[in-house]
Design brief:
The protein is built from six helices and three strands; from the N terminus they run ααβααββαα. It is mainly α. It has a three-stranded antiparallel β-sheet.
């Protein structure tokens, strides 16, 4: 049973929409996880960590990686250790701070990530293939309104 099956016609439309969004997210994510494992023998958290490093060529400190990925430092450390052992990322000392280091992609890691990212993009495009350009633009715009409202509420609560 997916998340959407929990909703009934008497529930507010907003709740049913929320459950549909969750269901769609879970279905697409499950497909991406499966394809990453089958095609690249990797996991989504490893892909996500490498994606963060690809956006920061000089590397990131572990706490920055943790914050960007919204996971604990322990999770980042475990994934980083694996990627270092495989030669995909490297640790670099931070000048002036003996306790800190940056993590960045190696050339091997950058090449592997670029191969994965290219295919990942195709999988996501395929997941939305049932929508035309106008549908995609409308959905993007509407979800942007939901995002803006959520961010405004978050700022008000802070």
């Amino acid at each position: 049973m997916d998340m959407e099956a929990r909703a009934h016609s008497e529930h507010p439309e907003a709740l049913r929409l929320w459950l549909r969004l969750l269901t769609c997210t879970q279905l697409v994510e499950k497909q991406v996880r499966t394809l990453l494992r089958e095609r690249f023998d990797t996991t989504l958290p490893r892909f996500d960590l490498m994606a963060q490093l690809e956006r920061a060529p000089a590397g990131l400190k572990m706490n920055e990686l943790s914050r960007r990925m919204m996971v604990t430092g322990g999770n980042v450390t475990g994934i980083t250790d694996q990627l270092v052992a495989e030669g995909l990322v490297e640790r670099i000392d931070v000048e002036g701070d003996r306790r800190a280091y940056r993590v960045r992609l190696t050339s091997k890691g950058r090449k592997q990530f670029n191969d994965m990212a290219r295919q990942h993009e195709g999988w996501i495009v395929e997941a939305f293939a049932g929508l035309n350009e106008k549908d995609l633009a409308t959905l993007h715009r509407l979800l942007g309104k939901v995002k803006d409202q959520a961010l405004a509420r978050q700022e008000t609560a802070s």
